[in-house]
Amino acid sequence: MNIKNKKNPLGFALILATFSALGPFTVDMYLASLPQIAAFFGTSATAVQASLTTSLLGLGLGQLIMGPLSDIYGRRLPLLISMIIYILSSMGCAFAPSIEWFICLRLIQGGAASAGLVISRAIVRDRFSGVEMTKFISLLTMISNVAPLISPTAGSAVMSYSSWIGIFIFLGVLGIALTGITLWGLKESLPVMQRVPSSPISLIKNYNGLFRKRSFMGYALVNGILFAGVFAYVAGTPFIYQNIYGVSPQMFSILFALNGLAIILGSQLVKLLAGRVTESRLFLIGLIIAFISSAATLFIVLVHGALSAMFISIFLFALSIGIIGPISFTLAMESQGHIAGSASAVLGTLQFALGAVTSPLVGMAGENSAIPFGIVIFSTSLLSVIAYIVLIKGRERLRL
Prior knowledge:
Layout: H1 9-28, H2 34-41, H3 45-73, H4 76-94, H5 99-127, H6 130-144, H7 146-161, H8 164-184, H9 200-212, H10 214-244, H11 249-273, H12 279-302, H13 307-333, H14 340-361, H15 371-399
Helix pairs in contact: 1-5, 1-6, 1-7, 1-8, 2-3, 3-4, 3-5, 3-14, 4-5, 4-8, 5-14, 6-11, 6-13, 7-8, 10-13, 10-14, 10-15, 11-13, 12-13, 12-15
């Protein structure tokens, strides 16, 4: 079947969201099985955690490769090849003979999964523009953000019927389903005449052009820096909620899910207001909410405030991410139609690269201190405001 996005936007969004969800499922679904994997291979927790690092590395760097390839060869062919590699690497992980092989295969699996992330966003740019793109990317964000909420639970459910091996077989089957969707459910969105030349010089020139555009890099940096705050939240809140505030694992899961719903709520506010309020105004509103909520988080940390106050401030920060994410994508990608794959790669890679920096920082003072977490969260919003003033507002002043 060929999905007609104009007639069935929800169905089209579900397909693209499934490709986007491949990244979170690849990273999160096996987390509960890490101790079992360590026991199976007779290795340390550190060695098994290296497989998480390599999968994240593959997701980040893979986008820089898959984005330009989709600009050169179209969206379907690179996506199809990536899904085949994803199937093989997932099955390879399931039957890896050693922890070293497992770690290497996780790198390949993450790189293959990155195609789903970067190419799905490029397809959105191919098919939509302006307010339509803002509304569609908001719908896509809402659906995609369900994946991080359900992937750990899905992994636990699979493990209740099998071992950790079953998780990677499940991921391989998911890859088979996505291969079928690519073949029969997804039309090529990039015409041959709009593709870029397949030369290293063109690739370097395209990336150089993106890095030199003030507005593009402004929106990309604001988005990337704030998402680095989300990575810090994911790394820090398990210890803050459970070790400092003493909540149970079940209550932590509820609080974590509610913050995920805040991102979904933010994206839906964008969808409702797009066309009534300008994208630039919505973007500024989201940035203000992020700054105020992160400042409140830091204050609550410093005065050892109540759990309810901490939750509300983090909820509002997550809400701001849901607002800023879709709009920053639209405003950054609006003029990058000819190299949408490369532009999408820069947007995605910045999130992972900056997130890799912030995640370890939240634990600098140990598991029983939330001060580094508060500082990191506030710093991300402060740096985002600076990037906005210098690169976006500064560019607007230059036009006057």
